[in-house]
Each structure stands twice: as C-alpha cells, then as structure tokens.
C-alpha cells in the first residue's frame, strides 16, 4: 500500500530561506527600534507574516503602537525586502535529497502538494525549477488560520482530492507538525528538536521514498 499524496512545507523542507526572512525582519524591526536575533527568529518559523509581525512588536513592547493599516504597511515593507532577496535563489538551493524524492514520487504516481503559509511560494518553486513536480499548492492568501491550525494542510488535501488519512505531511517547524497531526495526516518531522512527529528525521538527506514507504506500511 502507498499513500495517495505527500504534502510538503516549503521553508526548511524544500529549501531554506529562513536566513533571508531573518535579514528582512531584522531590518524592519531595527527601523522600529526593536532588536531581534536568530534565536528569536526561530519562533517565527511556520507562522504567517502578520502573526510574525505581531510577535516582533510584542517582543519590542510595541504591540499596540500601530494601527492595522500601519502594520500592513510594515509587513509589506518586509515582504518587499524578502522578495528582492529571492533573486539569489537558484536550483542549487534545493535541500539535499528533495529533488530525488520528488522524482521518485512522480514515478510512483503519488500526488504531491505544498502547504506553505508563504505568499511567495509559487515564485520560490519557480526559482528552484520545481513547479512541475507539484500537483497542487494551497493558496496562502485564502488561509484564515495559521499553523498550528490544520487549515492549510486540509486545503492541500482538498485541492489534491484526497482524504487526509491517506496522506503524509512533512514539516520542519513545531507549529507545522501540530497542524499535520490535527489534520489527520501522518506526520514526518525534519529536525531533532521537534516533538509529536510520527517519524522524525535529522535532515532532508534521510527523506527518501523507501523510508517513507516503510513508514507508511507500519500499523497498516
């Protein structure tokens, strides 16, 4: 037996743009008189741009200092800085083992989906030359609730026309693992610090079809 689909998170699973996000947020935060470091930036993994900004403002003691319209302008400035930095992305930025896994899934006729809260996900896939490998990408602009809510994973399953119980979800953030588990999918975590994943792997190099196949057949 095989899963009908595998749904991927983007950042930290397919490529790693976390540092680009950090540089953009650090510049914007600095303009607001708020200092953030990479340790704090880790707490922003897997959540939306708007929620990330709220956490930064809370961190700097300025949560109530801006109107909603002003926060939207700040978030837009961050995104402009981030999008500009994406020009440095090339196909070589795909994390180890991912291109081989996507090719294997295509050969196995297993559907693939993307569940990323990044509004820039389509542009990133295009820069990495991975767009043809994905059958459906959940539209982050239509998502009302950020991870750990399962909404975006359920949207990916709906778009792929498969039941969550017939899918594997892959994440590198704790909020993402919690979202996958809440959706009813089986969860695969990338990174040693995650908890609650059905299968935990140290890096994407261990993310192979034989390993996922063996994992899927457990308890089946």
TrEMBL record:
Question: Which residues does the UniProt site feature Important for catalytic activity and assists the phosphoryl transfer reaction to Asp8 by balancing charge and orienting the reacting groups point to?
Answer: 116, 147
- Any GO molecular function: magnesium ion binding
Which CDD domains does the UniProt record give?
A: HAD_BPGM
Residues reported to bind Mg(2+): 9, 11, 171-172
User: What are the BP-aspect GO terms?
Assistant: carbohydrate metabolic process
The note on the cofactor says: Binds 2 magnesium ions per subunit.
Catalytic residues (UniProt)? 9, 11
Query: What is the catalytic activity of this protein?
Result: beta-D-glucose 1-phosphate = beta-D-glucose 6-phosphate
Q: Which cofactor does it need?
A: Mg(2+)
Q: List, alphabetically, the InterPro entries matched.
A: B-phosphoglucomutase_hydrolase, Beta-PGM, Beta-PGM-like, HAD-like_sf, HAD-SF_hydro_IA, HAD_sf, PGP-like_dom2
Q: Which Gene3D superfamilies match?
A: HAD superfamily/HAD-like, Putative phosphatase, domain 2
State its Enzyme Commission number(s): 5.4.2.6
* Gene Ontology CC annotations of this record: cytoplasm
Specify the domain of life of the species encoding this protein: Bacteria
* The keyword Metal-binding is assigned to this record: yes
Q: Which UniProt keywords apply?
A: Carbohydrate metabolism, Cytoplasm, Isomerase, Magnesium, Metal-binding, Phosphoprotein
Q: Which family does it belong to?
A: Belongs to the HAD-like hydrolase superfamily. CbbY/CbbZ/Gph/YieH family.
- Protein name, entry field: Beta-phosphoglucomutase
Q: Which organism is it from?
A: Citrobacter farmeri
